[in-house]
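Email to the structure team, subject: Integral membrane protein model.

Hi all, the expression group asked for a predicted structure before they design truncation constructs. Nothing fancy, just the tokens so they can compare against earlier work. One-line instruction: predict Integral membrane protein, return tokens.
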Amino acid sequence: MHTSPPQSATRHPVLVGLVEAFRLDLIVVPSAFVAATVFWIVGLGAQLDYSIIPEWAFALWALVHGLSVTTIGFEFSLAPSLVTVGVWLLVSSGATRIVSELSDAEPHPTSSGEETPWWATCTMALTGFALGYAGPLIALALIVGTAVVDPFGVLRLVALLGTAFAFGYVRARGVVDVPWLGALDAEVWEAARALAKRLLFGALALAVVVIGVGLALRWSDLTESMESYSSPLSAGIGLIVVQLLFAPGALFGALSWVAGSGVSIGAGGLSSAFVAVTGPVPDVPVLQLLTGDYPVWTTAAPVLLVVLGLGCVVIGRTHAGRVYAASWTGVGIAAGLILIACETVALFAYGAIGPLGLAAFGPSPVFAAVAVTAWLSLGTAIGLVLTKLSHMQYDESELAAHDDR
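Reply from the structure team: attached below.
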């Protein structure tokens, strides 16, 4: 009995990507309008005409993807990183669907009747996805959303789409088609991936602890600043929401502060575990942690990253054995994955947040990721050395026991 080919075999790969981009637009654009409407009602509904809502919606859409926007006379380029993470997950899910669909489809023929290579088919589909999504985004952001397309904004947009596509591709097909990684033993890749996953979630937990300790040490100062609001309770609820929207960037800022690469507070200088600064910052608890003095023992904060890297290697006998078998190759791959993740977050954790001299706020887009990765890698290297020494001692004990027999 004749059966029809899979649906994706009857569609051009570029069309597959464009359909996925349109599907994503149906989620993101209405969400931006809902958020802009809420901001207009809750914030400035009495002072501004409702026609400002489309401008805010497309400005928010652009800001989430890393572009700079100018509204109400102020420049904003610090992305609400929690929303950015959500968009990144949607893009990566779309890339996974595209790669999975093309993997299951029959090869797409060229005009000469030959089969199109897999890499060319996948590249065409993902290019269609990128252009179909980023093209309208940039156009509408410029025309309606008062966005500014600068090199840094374009770099952030490319980083968002590129890393999401790469994650979606690996999630669908693994690394078998990836140059150099595809030639690795599967166990080496799995050990490196598991180690990178531990480091990532461990770093997130460490950042939460660091911010918690900071809040405890500066609680009296923060309580005093909250009293400046006419309604501290309402202000506290609003500030919690705002801080959650920027949570990923704030967490990475905490890691950068611990690593010593610091967090820029514009005209106030660079705040880190080694340097105490004073500068104008809004009355937001997480931001106020960046100013003022801390106990001397906080200068030893980078040790926390080293200990974290060490623990991520040696905790768990089975896991430690896998890392030992993967050796320096596995540790190096894990470090590379962490560097890519940290650099992507660092790009979106830095930007302008309007007035008060905060035109350059956040961890360095270049040095912060390198510093955090370097301290973690030092810990993983020490952990691997200890694991190797432990195996050497075990082997010698086994040999001695065999000789006694």
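The longest strand covers residues 68-71. Residues 1-9, 398-404 have pLDDT under 50 and may be disordered. Ping us if the truncation boundaries need rechecking.
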